[in-house]
Amino acid sequence: MALEIYNTLTRKKELFTPLEPGYVGMYVCGPTVYSDVHLGNCRTFISFDIIYRYLKYLNYKVRYVRNITDAGHLEGDRDEGDDKFSKMARAQKIEPMEIVQRYTLGFRDVMQLFNTLPPSIEPTATGHISEQIAMTQTIIDNGYAYEKNGTIYFDVEKYNAEKPYGILTNRKLEDLLEGTRDLDGQDEKKGRLDFALWIKAKPEHLMQWPSPWGMGFPGWHIECSAMSSKYLGKQFDLHGGGMDLAATHHTNEIAQNEACFHKSPAQIWMHTNMLTVNGTRMSKSLGNGFLPHELFTGAHALLDKAYSPMTVKFFMLQTHYRSTLDFSNDALQASEKGLKRLWEAYENLQKMQYTLGEINVEIEEKTATLIHGFDESMDDDFNTAKVLANMFEIVPIINSIKDGLMPIGSISQNTFALLQTKMKSYLEDVFGLIPAQESNNNNLANVMELLIDIRKEAKLKKDFATSDKIRNQLSNIGIVVKDEKDGSVSWNIG
């Protein structure tokens, strides 16, 4: 079976054929680093890490580009509100790039805790201002953008007259206009759906650059178009992100690339689904959203206990990336037990030495079918849940051999060797899981560094309740945090 991937653009699974045989170009929209990375982001990045790993497992040479948005992201998707970085910097009386540095490092720490591989290239928006200006100028030259008082807008209705603007979400322009407020002469845009490629900066704006149209900063959407085309070309294989990006951000990326290069950026568009908690959509406003560090420490009212990064990752892998993922204590605790059971069986398998015996045809065929199902399931749009289901069917066979209830020779030597190889390849190389003890030892220092940073930030905001809560809850589990006279923070296991 060859790899098939669900394409949001065509709304069906398609046989994956790279533009260049043996090579894959993949772009994933990365975090906007003005706050802690949230769990929905983590699910997306873990999902695409698995996809990256599996493509490498298939012996593709993969260039995986995941950007860092460190400028130009306004509070509203339609060029509304304040710049998120400037707003945070003014509130804390620090430089915007201090915000960027803090949360970029925090994001990478969390990704390391989940044992994800770093992307091939991790470009920043601020590092590619010239590329964004050049792309904006080309779109103007091609007749799809206009300047108003130093801001450059994309002309959606003119573009839509030639190509369908809402092609990614299968929506007509008339339907999109229905849900958009009338300009009423209060906006300098020509059309209600027009979006900014370059935004004129007010004198007090903290992040701005010179351009042919005056001092300003890039629109959010042009950033990804400029960076993806720089490192992957005018058209590449896979473009990914959360499903919340499809309607606006990714729709605008397609329009920008078509207007600039006369090509859609990606052959296949992939989107991860949303998170829910006990059946309700996860959101800050409902108070049911928790951050990764809250899961790892249990420091949230909705959590019964702490859950390790590997437990959380394993929990995510048990649901297909395009399906809604529902968090609950029962589900997380079931995953914790399931991971322990699976990993114990895997470790026992790796220690076994094969000896010849009488092959049990039924067990042999069942085991071989389950093993071959690993690749078949991943080739079916990266179905990690089905791979794990097969593994759990194999666990009783491994345990029966270990407990002496079934001779190891009940399966053939070839099948046994394949079982050892495939279990290792999938659990460690494709899924990126690591043993619980090793995970705990490797990750404790990283978790503590993350919590200390969050505590420092709370103190800067004079949020002493959060600062004290972190210290007290760590104390309750035997970790003593001490504020030193020189401003540093030390910790030890008491």
Care to describe what's here?
The chain folds into three domains: 269 residues, Rossmann fold, CATH 3.40.50; 73 residues, no CATH class; 42 residues, no CATH class. Helices cover 47% and strands 15% of the residues. The strands form six sheets. A four-stranded parallel beta sheet has the order 4-3-11-12, with helices on both faces. The longest helix is centred in the last third of the chain and has 25 residues. It is globular, with a radius of gyration of 25 Å. The mean pLDDT is 91.
Please tag this protein with its features.
494 residues; 3 domains; 15% strand; alpha/beta; 16 helices; Rossmann fold
Poorly predicted runs are none
The biggest beta sheet reads: 4 strands, parallel
Report the C-alpha radius of gyration, rounded. Answer: 25 Å
Q: What order do the strands of the largest sheet run in, or round the barrel if closed?
A: 4-3-11-12
The computed structural class is alpha/beta
